[in-house]
């Protein structure tokens, strides 16, 4: 797969909602899946997910795609280098954990996923799991 299509993006978003439901006491989340350039392909908001999580999930997916790393890794970088996200001249970037790049089997970035609604650590765990599942082929579009 050279690019993330809408069918696969929807599958990823649904899997994220199901993971939060099954493993995090049925707590509601928002999920954004974008292409490799950070443009939204699919978005789901579980019933009862906080309104603030809509923009946060999209920001996490966008940031992961634009920076080419997870938002947790981006956060580590800005702390390590003592810089602010604003230094990158992109007001949409966030270093809040919960976003990760999606790679194909060849390791090329084809998109990103952003999760919001749980703790940052829990959001990141779901994003990491789904990103890995895409790379290994464990998740495929229906």
List keywords for this structure.
single chain, 142 residues, alpha+beta, 4-stranded antiparallel β-sheet, 4 helices, 43% helix, 18% strand
Structural class: alpha+beta
Order of helices and strands: HEEHHEEH
Low-confidence stretches: none
Oligomer: single chain
Average residue pLDDT: 95
Main pleated-sheet profile: 4 strands, antiparallel
Cα distance spanning the termini: 15 Å
Work out the strand percent.
15-25%
Query: How many alpha or pi helices?
Result: 4
The number of distinct β-strands equals 4
Dominant shape: globular
Task: Give, in spatial order, the strands making up the sheet with the most strands.
Answer: 2-1-4-3
User: How helix-rich are the residues, as a percent range?
Assistant: 40-55%
Q: What's the gyration radius in Å? A: 14 Å
What report would you give on this structure?
- The chain is α+β, with helices and mostly antiparallel strands and 142 residues long.
- It has helices at 6-23, 52-67, 71-80, 120-136, and strands at 30-35, 40-45, 99-103, 109-116.
- The protein contains four helices and four strands.
- Strand 3 and strand 4 form a beta hairpin.
- Helix 1 packs across helix 4 (120-136).
- The longest helix has 18 residues, at 6-23.
